[in-house]
Amino acid sequence: MPESQKVIISCAITGGMTVPGQSAAIPITPDQIVESALEANRAGASILHLHVRDPKNGRPVADPELFLEVTSSIREQCDAIVQPTTGGGVGMSIDERARVLSVCRPEMATFNLGSFNFGIFQVKHREGMADWETAYLESTRDYVFKNTFADMYRMAAYFRESGTKPEFEAYDVGHIYNLLHLLEQGLVETPLHLQFVLGVLGANGTAPEQLVHMWQTARSLLGADTFTWSVAGIGYPGEFHLGAVALVLGGHFRVGLEDNLRVTLSKRAESNAQLVEKAAALATMLDREVATPAQARTALGIIDN
Ligand code: KMH
Ligand code: ZN
Questions:
Q1: Are 169 and 112 in contact (CB under 8 A)?
Q2: Measured distance CA(105)–CA(161) in Å, rounded
């Protein structure tokens, strides 16, 4: 099987748009994040997507020291592609979000392709949620996840400076046109890697035809040979249903507690590894071998450093 047909499984370990009270499985402290990431890697994830949280209460933060601690520790213990976020969490500025690039100089990081409403205020209140968690969720009634053209131009410069491969997060079809604009301006270069993120309240939904539409739009605008792509379905069953569509279409597949807290309709996920195991099982059933990190680097055009 050609390397490009092997599936790259990413695992989004903890997230910036969830609060700890949603699930006891969400890792919080640097040690917990590292442990969960290593387990996900052992289960088949070759990309580990990372946010960090204040170890005292689990609030999403952009602290570069925490990023450095977590990314260095994971890199010492496995060969997965360590992919920190530059999306961050509610209320972080673009410069705060980009700090991880200059401090950690990661081989890959996320690059968000546009501004949109990002609502998590419908998340159910669970017993034991702290006041700040309820306020965090509620604040998104009036929240725009801001990635203006000025922000994206600045972000592209940060990526060039750190030599980091962007994973372009497209939450809606217009974001693919934004990527074309960045490409035409010479701010980013091919080969591109896109993550279609479907299911955020405020952007595109998890219907399979929306994924197909975004994929077709990317092919016609950017050219079928200029990019690799993956899907992150938010929530259950979107995460696995869209992953199955991506497996059939030759794309890659992201799972993880950042995006989804259930492993089946009736069972909450106990760990990130459990979600990766299910993704790997689906891939195997559909004759897509799971890529190793080295194979993922080759498929993505990342030069190993
Ligand atoms: N929070 C997810 C919906 C990022 O971190 O830059 C998308 C994401 C983007 O993971
Ligand atoms: Zn993220």
A1: yes
A2: 9
Structure tokens at 40: 């996900």
| Phi-psi label, residue 256: left if phi above 0, alpha if psi -120 to 50, beta otherwise | left
Domain residue limits, the chain: 3-300
Q: Which atom of ligand 1 is nearest to the CA of 111?
A: 6
Ligand 1 within 6 A of CB of 107? no
The CATH classification of domain 3-300, taken from the options 3.90.650.10, 3.20.20.70, 3.10.20.740, 3.40.630.10? 3.20.20.70
112 lines ligand 1 (CB under 6 A): yes
Backbone angles phi, psi at 221, to 5 degrees: -80, -40
Instruction: Verify whether ligand 1 is closer than 6 Å to residue 197 (CB atom).
Output: yes
Whole-prediction pTM: 0.98
CA count, 13 A, side-chain hemisphere, 81:
33
Alpha helices by DSSP H, listed for 2-115, are 30-43, 64-77, 94-104
CA–CA gap between residue 285 and residue 243 (Å, rounded): 13
Tell me the per-residue pLDDT of 23-61, one tens digit each, with 9 for 90 and over. 999 999 999 999 999 999 999 999 999 999 999 999 999
For the CA of 86, the closest atom of ligand 1 is: 6
Its sign, for the CA torsion 209, 212, 213, 214, is positive
Rounded (5°) CA angle 70-72-77: 95
Q: Which two tokens stand for residue 137?
A: 């969720």
State the chain's maximal CA–CA distance in angstroms. 51
CA–CA distance, 110 with 168 (Å, rounded to integer): 6
CA–CA gap between residue 173 and residue 213 (Å, rounded): 8
Count of CB atoms situated within 10 Å of the CB of 264: 12
In the predicted model, is pLDDT for residue 79 greater than 70?
A: yes
